[in-house]
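Is this the right way to post structure tokens for a design question? Let me know if I should format differently. Anyway, here goes:
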């Protein structure tokens, strides 16, 4: 089967559209976090946004291997749920990542295998793994924001200012960096997978 005539081409176009949306949504949520003084949370979201852009690129490149295609009609979901409430934005984003990693991309991968596109199936499966990491990261950040542990721990830990590199070991991250004067939001996140 030629990719041009396959369901996999449709799935690639859906994945491309979904990744472009995800990229934009993470940039929006990052702006919300930074607007609340949570610079490093914003940077974590920027890093996810960059991943989504490169996912978009790999799916786009697979489509482009067919040569020029005037248009691909697709049906997709376009929810508009982002608000200024960071916690609900993180929850919605984690839910989307969960759906991508457990159902959407594995389904696309199986269909690509059936149609004889092993390389594309592999890309869907590799992307699903990354989306699972995104989901865990988003949940971790959301949990830390909810239980107050983002910059406060029951026993001393090492905190590092991401602007000047100053490190200190304490229960709580300094509200103002004693070396450069940066606010607490610039202190490096302590994440469960790092
Ligand atoms: Fe992605
Ligand atoms: Fe993702």
């Amino acid at each position: 089967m030629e990719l041009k005539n396959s369901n996999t081409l449709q799935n690639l176009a859906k994945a491309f559209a979904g990744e472009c949306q995800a990229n934009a949504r993470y940039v929006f949520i990052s702006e919300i976090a930074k607007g609340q003084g949570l610079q490093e949370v914003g940077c974590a979201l920027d890093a996810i946004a960059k991943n989504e852009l490169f996912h978009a690129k790999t799916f786009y490149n697979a489509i482009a291997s067919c040569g020029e295609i005037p248009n691909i009609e697709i049906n997709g979901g376009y929810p508009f749920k982002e608000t200024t409430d960071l916690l609900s934005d993180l929850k919605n984003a984690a839910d989307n990542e969960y759906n991508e990693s457990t159902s959407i991309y594995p389904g696309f991968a199986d269909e690509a295998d059936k149609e004889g596109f092993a390389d594309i199936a592999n890309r869907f499966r590799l992307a699903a793994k990354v989306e699972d990491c995104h989901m865990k990261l988003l949940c971790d950040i959301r949990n830390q924001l909810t239980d107050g542990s983002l910059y406060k721990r029951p026993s001393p830990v090492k905190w590092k200012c991401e602007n000047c590199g100053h490190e200190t070991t304490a229960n709580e991250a300094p509200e103002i960096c004693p070396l450069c004067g940066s606010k607490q939001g610039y202190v490096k996140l302590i994440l469960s997978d790092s």
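Format looks fine. Someone answered above. Worth noting: The longest strand covers residues 152-160. The chain has four helices and two strands.
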